[in-house]
Amino acid sequence: MEWELTEVPGNPTSSLQGTVDVVAANIEPKLASALIRQLSQACPLENLRHVKRVRRRTECGKSELSIILCLSAGTETCSKQLPVDVQKIVDTYQLNSFTAKVPMCSAISKEDWEEQCKLWPTSYHPAHDLGIARGFREEELASIFNCMKITIQLSKVGKGNAAIIVDPSSTQIIAKSLSMEVSCINPWGWTKQRTMGQKPLPSEISFMWHPLRHAALVAIENAAERDRMMFPSTSLIKPDSNSNLENYNDNEPAKRLKTDTIVKFEHQDKEQSADESCCSDLSETTRPYLCTGFDIYLVWEPCAMCAMALVHHRFKRVFYAFPNPVHGALGGVYRLHGEKSLNHHYNVFRVSVPEAYLNGLNDGLKEC
Predict the structure, then answer these.
(1) pLDDT one-digit tens code per residue, 323-333
(2) CMP/dCMP-type deaminase domain spans which residues (predicted)?
(3) Which of 8, 92, 186, 252 could form a disulfide with 368 if both were Cys (CB 3.0 to 4.6 A apart)?
């Protein structure tokens, strides 16, 4: 397998757009196995493989078992639309048939699956074979794959998740982070107790065993620290309530605004020190507002907490290599990036990684 980039859509086409009428009947639990076997031979549901043949539900405190006999042929009474072989089974077991509705297509998200099961039980298999991402230049793909290589190599150090934040306009790495566990898959791993004979390392006290030290969150924190170091006390421009621009100091508890204009200090005394000149030169660059326009690369798909942090910090694109089948918020279980109520949205892509780069990653997952 070669490196490959696939897009994870935030708003996949709903599978609840259509239903199909089927003929079903209530049965005794002891007859279920025999009826499933006979009906699978007499009338297999070839186009409804996602629909389970038997439904169990509780009404008025009583458990009820129903089975699909066949597809409905029309609006006539159930007894007149049954195939001959199915009719024989109905007569043999003296079943009373009725018409029910089942989903026409298989669910493509957990939310759809939950809605489908309100009609009739269906099976759900998360879609990992997504459409190949289009519109990327060869050099851009090479840069994306190279960033993912760096992220994977970083993750092998701690056998956990890793993240790097990249400015796509310059391909500069803004920040890196490493979590010693795949915290997004095992969010309660920090509660594990160490054996009496082990002494915790300083790094473990502040990083490995903290419930909020997920790779994405630490990378965001490192990016903020970078900004504080590069712009220690620069004045920035922000809009006031009337959309007029005004200066504010970085020490104030206000958000930093990314501007496309060059921020300039008023001309001070001509005799400035070398430090002041250096600081002035640095202030004439564009300072990021949070992580606006940046990309983040993760080995493992982020959980809901991390995915929301990426929303709040205005990331442009999110790339991950492996889906999170337990708590994934960007395709594995949920699709948070498609939530319309959010005030910011980013694009999500999955990077298929060749087998040669997988050594050492599976072991880290097993330990979680």
Answers:
(1) 988 888 998 88
(2) 207-349
(3) 186
